[in-house]
Amino acid sequence: MDVFHVSGITPALGPAMHNLTMTALKEAASRGVQVSFDCNYRAKLWSPEEAKASFEAILPYVDTCFISHKDFVYLLGMDGDEVFSPEQLERLYDQAARKYQISTMASTHRTAASASSNSLTGYYYDGSRLHASSTVSFDLLERVGGGDSFASGILHGVLQENWEPQQIVDFATGSSVLKHMVYGDSNQFDEAYVLQFVENQDNDVKR
Fold first, then answer.
1. What's the CA gap between 82 and 141, in Å, rounded?
2. Of 155, 149, 133, which Cα lies nearest the Cα of 182?
3. Given the residues 81, 148, 170, 185, the one annotated as active site
4. What is the CA radius of gyration of the chain?
5. Residue 201 CA to chain centroid, in angstroms?
6. What's the CA gap between 121 and 176, in Å, rounded?
7. How far apart are CA 180 and CA 115, in angstroms?
8. Taking every annotated instance into account, which residue ranges of this chain make up the domain Carbohydrate kinase PfkB (predicted)?
9. Do residue 89 and residue 183 come from a single domain?
10. CATH number, position 42
């Protein structure tokens, strides 16, 4: 096993699932397996206070974390503004890296011109600095699965031996954008297709 990935929805399902998550994380760490965690906060499942207590226990075991500036401010209680800025995100990532010893972190920032026209920028923190993808505008067909496609794209890049941080975030953002442009909740595009899309920045998906 190369990576053990956990969604924040799992510990949100109750104390027993939080405890099971912690057991699995400790086992992964003892075996030298990389741990990936997507905060995935869902207000309908638990309160910010409950999430904070769980995340504070989980994060010290995490190598790669998918976490936004709002997660830091509203869940973990770090100082920050509601309005997004790359500078603030990098500062929060720096603080989290020092506090929890997280190696890499990532998130996206979305702007919506309309319900069907969105723009997406990906951000990847490599442990020392923040890398941003280009902002990609696209016509939205299905939003479900876009976040998972970004996360899987980051992990795919991290597992490559020779990918630079910029290539990782560009690939992940391209993967997410492509998922938004087709129906269904899973990403059907292979590595070669995503790389071609990133290189050409062509929003016309070939079917």
1. 28
2. 149
3. 148
4. 17
5. 21
6. 10
7. 12
8. 2-179
9. no
10. 3.40.1190.20
22: enclosing H helix or E strand? helix 15-30
- Residue 105: name the closest of 141, 73, 129 by CA: 129
191 Cβ partners below 8 Å, 6+ apart?
156
Q: Which two tokens stand for residue 39?
A: 């905060």
Structural domain that includes position 27 = 1-102
- Residue 20 to residue 154: CA distance in whole angstroms: 25
What does the alpha-carbon distance between residue 92 and residue 144 come to, in Å, rounded to a whole number? 27
- Token readout for 128 is 């020392």
Q: pLDDT truncated to tens, each residue of the chain (207 aa)?
A: 899 999 999 999 999 999 999 999 999 999 999 999 999 999 999 999 999 999 999 999 999 999 999 999 999 999 998 889 999 999 999 999 999 999 999 999 999 888 788 899 999 999 999 999 999 998 887 778 788 999 999 999 999 989 999 999 999 999 999 988 888 777 888 999 999 999 887 554 444
Structure tokens given for 197: 């899309």
Catalytic status, residue 148: yes
